[in-house]
Amino acid sequence: MTVLALLAAAALAQQPAPSELVARAGTEEWLPISPSDVLVLELRPLTKGKPRRVVLQLMPAPFSQGWVANIRTLAAAHWWDGLSINRVQDNYVVQWGDANGDDQVKAKKLPPGLVPVPASAYVAPVPRVMVAVAGGGSSDAPALPGLLAIRDAYAPQVGVTPQGWPFASDGNSYWPVHCFGMVGVGRELPPDTGSGAELYVVNGHAPRHLDRNLAVVGRVIDGMEHLSSLPRGTGAMGFYETAAERVPIVSLHLGTEVKGLPAYEFLSPAAPSFTAYVAARLNRRDPFFVTPAGGADLCNVPVPVRRVK
Amino acid sequence: MTVLALLAAAALAQQPAPSELVARAGTEEWLPISPSDVLVLELRPLTKGKPRRVVLQLMPAPFSQGWVANIRTLAAAHWWDGLSINRVQDNYVVQWGDANGDDQVKAKKLPPGLVPVPASAYVAPVPRVMVAVAGGGSSDAPALPGLLAIRDAYAPQVGVTPQGWPFASDGNSYWPVHCFGMVGVGRELPPDTGSGAELYVVNGHAPRHLDRNLAVVGRVIDGMEHLSSLPRGTGAMGFYETAAERVPIVSLHLGTEVKGLPAYEFLSPAAPSFTAYVAARLNRRDPFFVTPAGGADLCNVPVPVRRVK
After folding, report:
1. Nearest CB partner across the interface for B205, out of A119, A122, A205
2. For A41-99, what is each residue's pLDDT tens digit?
């Protein structure tokens, strides 16, 4: 390598890490997350005085809104309070709901107002815009904002919506994806059987084969470590084998009901700092790295979320 | 959908799950893992009589053999015995070694025989074979066995070696990858500073940007749940903030020194059942799935490993 090339490499190596770019983002580049779009899960503390609080953000339109409406109904009814985490499968999911849900006698009664959601709602149609065509007149064409120059093993296109949610697309429809920390709706075999009462959180490598097969309805934005560090269940599919192993849910309420909840915000995908962050994720040139990858998996480019300072 | 199309869809839906294909594989399709290529990590039990044993398989040639030799030396010297897990960063890594390693007075003395390994060993050259060329004579051309038809965000090509290890390649060189459960060598800023004394295990979504920047030297083949469920550290980068939080290592020995160790085997990538397993992973058509992805991430196609029955 020539001296000039070495100097150029050294200059590249001085570029900031993704986390530094996020830390430098201007206040105006962050957008608020409304407490009305947040759920707060309180698990029974392991140690007195040390709460185990997990904060979840609900998915905005155009994705999964039927299930999200059901989840709002269930949370408003305090339906999950007193139930438990019943399943922790390593490198897959943590799942909670009614451990007696399959027992017609013991099952906890669901609140009124839950609506069945069809499997067709696993995807949303790609927005279309009118464009002029050669020879006059106009026609509509797909116009999907937020596409990223990322190769994906599961779909032809991927990106992040203006509201800050990763998606995949086949050009005609688009859908939310199963990354680490994403929240989904458990179901039985028929694809329209998930009400939202059984919820899971991804605790390992993104199980993207679940995309379009289960509803993604939100993500953990704080306290993920309380879910990811739970003991793994030893039964089939990671279910706890005894009632004593289950993790009691003290409450799961809407953010608007929780006193003293911190305010949260996300880095707007339209912000210049977001663009710089994505570029840095795709090519790590901070000092630790000797060989930047020239790419990154969609789930390794998580939208930055933080407590408002 | 016509009735015939529905029937076809139903027939597709009857295909076995990847796990079923693996369970059906013939005995002759499995290859043994030698106890001499295994490390056994015993963590201090949380509950008396409930061991926390993690079994690691060391990486075979052509990858990372300098570090693997050092690790064999460290294990044979029982160097890790009495040390601890000092770092658990959520969705990233679990790391162990000498918590006093940076303290010149308190640091535990390393055994003799450790050899520095250059950063060039992060990759191996792609094998080349002689091929006939038009007009007579011959030339050498790259011949990389085990390539898979998988799109990858980090590299132009990916696959699994005949010895059962996932890799990525740029056509000239190839290298092992950071999937969930993979073991790597911690280092300081200069890329040749990792001896193998500090080891980490990936506990979340594959941090593939570390490929070619840190040495991958093995993988967890049993007991991963004892690492993935550890409490997360609250210090910078997930380090435990107090000595009391660290997880004591009772021993970390070569498999040949461990009495009563089960025998392990892996599904040969050359076996027909492996091919069927990969195809099923790329297109889930077992009954639960309504929309097969048509692809899968390399790290979501883990090479099946099991205890010998």
Report:
1. A205
2. 999 999 898 999 999 999 999 999 999 999 999 999 999 999 999 999 999 999 999 99
Is B152–A155 a contact, with Cβ atoms under 8 angstroms apart?
no
Nearest chain A CA: its distance from B77 CA (Å) = 30
3-state secondary structure of A82: coil
Residue A307 has pLDDT above 60, yes or no: yes
User: Do residue A204 and residue B228 have CB atoms under 8 angstroms apart?
Assistant: yes
Q: Who has greater pLDDT, A53 or A131?
A: A53
CB contact under 8 A, A297 and B205: yes
Numbers of helices and strands, H then E, in chain A: 5, 18
Q: Smallest Cβ distance to B228: which of A90, A287, A291?
A: A90
Element of type H or E holding A217? strand A215-222
> Taking residues B182-211, what's their average pLDDT?
96
Q: How many CB atoms lie within 10 A of CB B267?
A: 20
List CB contacts (< 8 A) between B185 and chain A.
Answer: none
State whether B213 and A179 contact (CB < 8 Å).
no
Q: Which stretches of B14-165 are DSSP H helices?
A: 18-24, 65-76
Q: What is the pLDDT at residue A7?
A: 43
Instruction: Write out pLDDT tens, residues B153-177.
Output: 999 999 999 999 999 999 999 999 9
Task: Name the strand (E) or helix (H) holding A219.
Answer: strand A215-222
Report the complex ipTM: 0.94
Residue A180 banded pLDDT, cuts 50, 70, 90: very high
Contact call for residues A178 and A185 (beta carbons, < 8 A): no
Which of A90, A205, A289 has the CB atom closest to B206's CB atom?
Answer: A205
Is the Cβ pair B213, A290 closer than 8 Å? yes
Q: What is the Cα Rg of chain B in Å? A: 22
Q: Which amino acid is at B50?
A: K
Distance, in angstroms, between B75 CA and closest chain A CA?
A: 27
Q: Which two three-digit tokens encode residue B40?
A: 């056994």
Query: Is B288 within 8 Å of A189 when comparing Cβ atoms?
Result: yes
User: From residue B155, how far is each of A169, A282, B150 by CA, in Å?
Assistant: 21, 12, 10
Please give, rounded to a whole number of angstroms, the shortest distance from the CA of A257 to a CA of chain B. 28
| Closest chain A residue by Cα to residue B227 | A229
Average pLDDT over residues B105-121: 96
What CA–CA distance (Å, rounded) separates A242 from A258?
31
DSSP string across B247-275 = EEEEEEEEGGGSTTPPPEEEE-TTSHHHH
Beta carbons within 8 Å of A51's beta carbon, 6+ residues apart: A42, A45
Give the CA distances from residue A288 to residues A9, A23, B212, B214, in Å, rounded to whole numbers and listed in that order. Answer: 13, 18, 12, 10
pLDDT at B60 over 80: yes
